[in-house]
From TrEMBL:
The name this protein goes by in its record: Lipoxygenase
Species this protein is from: Capsicum baccatum
Family the UniProt entry places it in: Belongs to the lipoxygenase family.
Top EC class for this record: oxidoreductase
An MF annotation (GO) of this entry: linoleate 13S-lipoxygenase activity
GO CC field: chloroplast
């Protein structure tokens, strides 16, 4: 799964590939004295054969290679420098490695073909390509340097692309190609991509120059290559992917379970009418045919709904009484057991429930209707218990939330009627206090599961994969929008593939350590069906849809927050605005006229494929944005960038800090509430040892240890992490206007760092400042390596 993506560009500076500074074994095939005395260089001359100018190598006895041209026409001598990144792979004594070293010695391992940017004005056809082998030269900072020399006829014009043929036995990672010697300056070609061996695929790899073009503006000499490259990347929809391929195609999630194993490994296919789901990248695997308490403080429990791992679930209460929308015949009476009198007692007579709703003071974590259909089948599993849950909060005069009540519900089962009970925090009775702690453990397990499966996996990793596939299939590598989005897709396909193998797979970490067990991914599909909308992935729309903001032209960024001290929203809106300004400058530069949007065939096909194929199970929804104007494109692209960068950073890089200590965020509740149909013995045990009952409800030591180790990895920034706005992409630097816009973008992100520091130091902001309060830094743009609890990378890279 991850192999096709590895063929794509990446800005990684990691050591990737298989060479040392010395040959892998001594080249004693030739006599040493013979090689010194008969040292030869290569002479290149040109033969016109079948519309291709061949650079033919001939040996001379001089030490310096000389280029001559067979005609007397004016020409220019240029040199191409290819930088190949070292990798660690294989053994120094391998046969293929030895053959590669011999090929390098004779300068016959990398063939470069220069492609003219424009057609021949006389014939109207493509000009002959100019070919030459690149000789292996010096090492620079551990990278291998290959050099080729060309004689360019005067009428050749500019270079539009370079074709690369890798004649090594294995693929290689090419960082860039620089062609120097032209009157108008250097030609830079950023590759950062694997190039397959000709022994795996005889087709040459195409790399376009750094200048971006809309389809209608493509230089005539490379228009055919642009179209053919996209056809190659789309593939034919058949066969299993091979390591050297760069094919992007769609498939349903049929690779989570083990359809050929026992029943315990079977999982339903996600995607289709029964369980709608975003599409993943197809690998060719046969389809499955089976479809079957520092945080114990109540204030901290409430604060983390605004400034913790999952700030995407809290909602404003707008109606009373609370009522389920599920079928009462299957799930029991829909009315909530949370009574008005309970709430008014908890808020100590400050106001009535009606007044609290009118003044926007009541908020809820509502997992009742989402979880209740799973309760009975989850409770049949060993070692886990599930309820439908509602948790109510009150916005206090000092701007913090206070929990008021937790309602847990079990639907009818085995001739037993529906069971539901409400627990409140302000009981002065010891039994009630322990019941509240246990109920809170259940709610935290629900929130942990929703965070991991919906806020994190579904809304970032999973939803982004179709954007990546469509971008590679429909947008040429020289398209400006492809180049704008490209850094936001780095490593995402790889990490998603790894997650399907070890995290969300059957009997993987999620299933064995979270409350939903084997039904975890099925819940993710139900949440996608019920909740996911592209338009609400944009931060402003997300906040408004949850009642946490409303439009106000006089407020910063045009939005007035319902909870003024909402750290995620406050920092997020600044970052959203910075991203949108950058995208606006970029899009308006390449699309100065509105009609260019609708006439851009690649762009229209890209958006159509995202809607109709990548997220095809929702293709008929009315909320999909149109793509007719630059403003439409700005909104769409900003949303994609937000999800891949800021949204993911907000829900990912604090995982170890908040959930590594499992009492703060248990991932699973293993025992039922002591008040749910207890036997006399069970109730007596709870009264005698309530702390033991709570510990039994928490994850086991093994579960907690596994989750802790996984969260440590997921919360880590790699040393080569690329943060938004820190370093400019070569494609962007090529254009002076885009380069200037990036400088503004980068400067505003540095300002945001200071804004967040100032907010965390403000003692009036009690949700991010105070004794024992963790400063909110998850949306600070930059970070060092390791577990830092801050930093916004371009992409979903972990």
């Amino acid at each position: 799964m991850l192999k096709p993506h590895l063929q794509q560009s990446s800005q990684s500076s990691n050591t990737l590939i298989p060479w040392n500074t010395k040959p892998s074994f001594p080249i004693n095939i030739l006599n040493k004295n013979f090689r010194i005395k008969n040292k030869k260089s290569f002479r290149v001359h040109y033969n016109n054969v079948a519309n291709s100018t061949k650079a033919v190598l001939s040996t001379t006895t001089t030490e310096k290679s000389t280029l001559v041209q067979s005609t007397n026409e004016k020409s220019t001598s240029v040199k191409a420098v290819v930088t190949v990144q070292r990798t660690i792979r294989g053994t120094n004594l391998s046969l293929s490695r030895g053959l590669d070293d011999i090929g390098d010695l004779f300068g016959r391992t990398i063939l470069l073909c220069l492609v003219a940017a424009e057609l021949d004005p006389k014939t109207g056809i493509e000009k002959p390509n100019i070919e030459a082998f690149a000789r292996r030269g010096r090492n620079v900072n551990g990278d291998k340097i290959y050099e080729a020399e060309f004689v360019i006829p005067e009428d050749f014009g500019g270079v539009g692309a370079v074709l690369v043929e890798n004649q090594h036995q294995k693929q290689m990672y090419v960082k860039n190609i620089v062609i120097d010697g032209f009157v108008h300056g250097k030609v830079d070609i950023t590759c950062n991509s694997w190039v397959h061996s000709k022994f795996d695929n005889s087709d040459k790899r195409i790399f376009f120059t750094n200048k971006s073009y809309l389809p209608s503006q493509t230089p005539s000499g490379v228009k055919r290559l642009r179209e053919e490259e996209l056809v190659t990347i789309r593939g034919d929809g058949f066969g299993e992917r091979k390591i050297f391929e760069r094919i992007y195609d769609y498939d349903v999630y049929n690779d989570i379970g083990d359809p050929d194993g026992n029943d315990d490994g079977k999982r339903p296919v996600l995607g289709g009418k029964k369980l709608p789901y975003p599409r993943r990248c197809r690998t060719g695997r046969p389809r499955s045919k089976k479809d079957p308490l520092s945080g114990s403080k109540n204030e901290e429990f409430a604060r983390q709904t605004l400034a913790g791992l999952n700030p995407y679930s809290i909602r404003l209460v707008t109606e009373w009484p609370l009522k389920s929308k599920l079928d009462p015949k299957a799930y029991g009476p829909p009315e909530s057991a949370i009574a008005k009198e309970m709430i008014e007692l908890e808020i100590e007579g400050l106001m009535t429930v009606e007044e609290a709703i009118e003044q926007k003071k009541l908020f809820i974590l509502d997992y009742h209707d989402l979880l209740l259909p799973f309760v009975n089948k989850v409770n049949e599993l060993k070692g886990t218990v599930l309820y439908g849950s509602r948790t109510l909060f009150f916005l206090t005069p000092n701007g913090t939330l206070r929990p008021l009540a937790i309602e847990l519900t079990r639907p009818p089962v085995d001739d037993k009627p529906q069971w539901k009970e409400v627990y409140c925090p302000s009981t002065w009775h010891a039994t009630g206090a322990w019941l509240w702690r246990t109920a809170k453990a259940h709610v935290l397990a629900h929130d942990s599961g929703y965070h991991q499966l919906v806020s994190h996996w579904l809304r970032t990793h999973c939803a982004t994969e179709p954007y990546i596939i469509a971008s590679n299939r429909q947008l040429s590598a020289m398209h400006p929008i492809y180049r704008l989005l490209f850094p936001h897709f780095r490593y995402t396909m790889e990490i998603n593939a790894t997650a399907r193998e070890a995290l969300i797979n059957a009997n993987g970490v999620i299933e064995t350590s979270f409350s939903l067990g084997k039904y975890s991914m099925e819940l993710s599909a139900v949440a996608y069906d019920l909740e996911w909308r592209f338009d609400r992935q944009a931060l402003p729309e997300d906040l408004m849809s949850r009642g946490l903001a409303e439009e106000d032209p006089n407020a910063p960024y045009g939005l007035k927050l319902t909870i003024e001290d909402y750290p995620f929203a406050n920092d997020g809106l600044v970052l959203w605005d910075i991203l949108k300004q950058w995208v606006t400058a970029y899009v308006n530069h390449y699309y100065p006229q509105t009609n260019l949007i609708e006439s851009d065939i690649e762009l229209q096909d890209w958006w159509s494929e995202i809607k109709n194929v990548g997220h095809g199970d929702k293709k008929d929804e009315p909320w999909w944005p149109e793509l007719k104007t630059p403003n439409d494109l700005i909104g769409i692209v900003t949303t994609i960038i937000w999800v891949a960068s800021a949204h993911h950073a907000a829900v990912n890089f604090g995982q170890y800090s908040y959930a590594g200590y499992f009492p703060n965020r248990p991932t699973i509740a293993r025992t039922k509430m002591p008040t749910e149909d207890p036997t006399d013995e069970e109730w007596e045990n709870f009264l005698n040892k309530p702390e033991e009952a709570l510990l039994k409800c928490f994850p086991t030591q093994i579960q907690a240890t596994i989750v802790m180790a996984v969260l440590d990895v997921l919360s880590n920034h790699s040393p080569d992490e690329e943060y938004v706005g820190k370093n400019i992409e070569p494609y962007w630097a090529e254009d002076p206007i885009i380069n200037a816009a990036f400088e503004v973008f980068s400067g505003k992100l540095k300002e945001l760092e200071g804004i967040i520091d100032d907010r965390n130091a403000d003692c009036n902001l009690r949700n991010r400042n105070g004794a024992g309060i963790v400063p909110y830094e998850l949306l600070k743009p930059f970070s060092g390596p390791g577990v830092t609890g801050k930093g916004v990378p371009y992409s979903i890279s972990i």
